[in-house]
Amino acid sequence: LGAVDILVNNAGTIRRAPAAEHPAQDWDDVLAVNLDAVFHLSQAAGRHMLARGSGRIINVASMLSFQGGILVPSYTASKHAVAGLTKALANEWAAQGVTVNAVAPGYMATDNTAPLRADADRAASILQRIPAGRWGTAEDVQGVFVFLASEAAAYVTGAVIPVDGGWLVR
After folding, report:
1. Sequence-separated contacts (24+) of 20-25 with Cβ below 8 Å
2. Which percentage of the chain shows pLDDT scores above 90?
3. Is residue 107 annotated as a catalytic residue, yes or no?
């Protein structure tokens, strides 16, 4: 890995099914991408960052790091775990110059939310709860990543920052 200064753990996948019927393979697949990869990549990059005494790790959490979700038990579990892992690594690595934070996007217009946006009733119920009144975009969330990667955030660690158009305050 050499001189990795910033790691953004952004890979993610989702599988939708009622919890009582959620396939074991879907559970394993989602946790492998959404949690195991975050840990292993953070560990690998973190070793180099710790040796240099500096680095930034930014994980992608979710609104479902704070809530239970509907029909997405593996995704919800994985994103709760990402929030916890973010805090655990921040506790261990902050004194050695490595910050670990997470960004928790709300309902964004992405491939993962395409089924929700295609369901008129579900989309309407989601939009009704977002004070901003719209789905988020990549442009809405990019500034938080830039901030967390910068020296301006040198004293920010262990944070899970929601970027949700106000979803959590409603």
Report:
1. 22/73, 22/74
2. 96
3. no
